[in-house]
User: Which sequence fits this backbone?
């Protein structure tokens, strides 16, 4: 199967390719890499602002928010061209893809001006404060409290796994504002600047390395946050959460398709068993492209099927994990070399994507967790796709 596009979509692609050819930062300009998912070096900030101003940062947005009102098919070819060149559109992916998008959907005009546009233009960076100890994938189980006191909320509690928080300027934070309401209805969302007194951020290493500092614990100790920083309605945090994840999931399968495409080049099978597992990788890569393209075509016709996105996310994340494990095992003892490179390095992407095989494999577990765990995806598929009764 081959996905083809009308002339207007191919013209859109050609215009974007010309923009990339004329404006991509050189390796010499990229004088330092990003240190976390909210650390955007100055050269990368300039590159992101250029994309925003030209309407190429998020083409589906209106021009005032870094886009050009692009169709879903135009957004697809935009991401496809970035993927071909191993280019990140932003080194603050959650800030651009989830937080700013949530503000554009649920924020006030002032919040869009004060927070969303600066995030999109890389003037500030943002982190997402959802997970807590004991409430990782269970957002309804969060216990961080926010009590309204005059024109401020007083926030107390803890977040964990907060990517890039130590480098972020603001955290989109999910808090419990009504402890007497049902678990899903007592949640609200606050924008909390990280320099607020009472906010403490503690980065910690990952499974890849103790020096890989992206994850954070974030503590709130009587942190006073202006009531005007409430995003959406009081008690309306569940809707914002689903909107946030919806922004993340629409074309999320493309990330896994890109990882599989990289593995097709980087995985070098040695034994007959390796060759069999490589053949599985080839079939999975084609299957994900086929299913994703079919979903894309449906959406282009206005036939939205949100639960079916769980199928793509589940299959893509687990296929990428299985293929990376196969490449890791095939490499033998050399797979444990760290640091190491197992693919071509691009200054416009992250070294983690082409690092040693152990690190590449270890990082695949985030794909089966972030954006909704595999267990949650299976539940969604069972109940909303297959129509099975709730257990």
Assistant:
């Amino acid at each position: 199967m081959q996905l083809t596009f009308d002339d207007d979509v191919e013209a859109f692609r050609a215009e974007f390719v010309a923009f990339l050819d004329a404006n991509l930062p050189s390796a010499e300009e990229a004088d330092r890499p990003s240190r976390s998912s909210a650390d955007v070096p100055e050269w990368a900030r300039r590159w992101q602002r250029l994309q925003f101003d030209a309407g190429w940062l998020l083409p589906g947005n209106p021009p005032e928010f870094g886009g050009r009102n692009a169709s879903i098919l135009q957004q697809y070819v935009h991401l496809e061209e970035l993927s071909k060149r191993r280019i990140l559109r932003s080194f603050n992916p959650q800030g651009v893809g989830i937080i700013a998008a949530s503000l554009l959907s649920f924020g006030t005009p002032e919040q869009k001006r004060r927070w969303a546009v600066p995030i999109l233009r890389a003037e500030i960076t943002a982190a997402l404060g959802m997970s807590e100890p004991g409430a990782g994938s269970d957002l309804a189980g969060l216990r961080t409290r926010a009590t309204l006191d005059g024109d401020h909320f007083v926030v107390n509690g803890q977040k964990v796994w907060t990517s890039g928080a130590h480098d972020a300027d603001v955290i989109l934070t999910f808090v419990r504002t009504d402890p007497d309401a049902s678990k899903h209805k007592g949640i609200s969302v606050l924008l909390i600047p990280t320099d607020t007194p009472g906010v403490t951020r503690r980065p910690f290493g990952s499974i890849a390395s103790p020096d890989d500092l992206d994850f954070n614990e974030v503590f709130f100790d009587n942190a006073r946050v202006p009531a005007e920083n409430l995003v959406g309605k009081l008690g309306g945090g569940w809707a914002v959460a689903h909107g946030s994840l919806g922004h993340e999931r629409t074309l999320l399968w493309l990330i896994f398709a890109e990882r599989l495409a990289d593995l097709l080049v980087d995985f070098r099978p040695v034994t007959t068993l390796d060759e069999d597992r490589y053949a599985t990788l080839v079939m999975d890569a084609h299957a994900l492209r086929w299913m994703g393209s079919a979903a894309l075509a449906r959406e282009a016709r206005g036939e939205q099927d949100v639960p079916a996105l769980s199928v793509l996310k589940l299959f893509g994340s687990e296929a990428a994990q299985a293929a990376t494990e196969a490449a890791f095992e095939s490499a033998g003892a050399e797979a444990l070399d760290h640091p190491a490179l197992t693919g071509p390095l691009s200054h416009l992407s992250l070294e983690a994507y082409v690092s040693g095989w152990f690190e590449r494999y270890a990082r695949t577990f985030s794909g089966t967790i972030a954006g909704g765990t595999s267990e949650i995806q299976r539940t969604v598929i069972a109940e909303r796709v297959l129509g099975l009764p709730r257990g």
Remarks:
- Residues 368 and 374 are 5 Å apart (CA to CA).
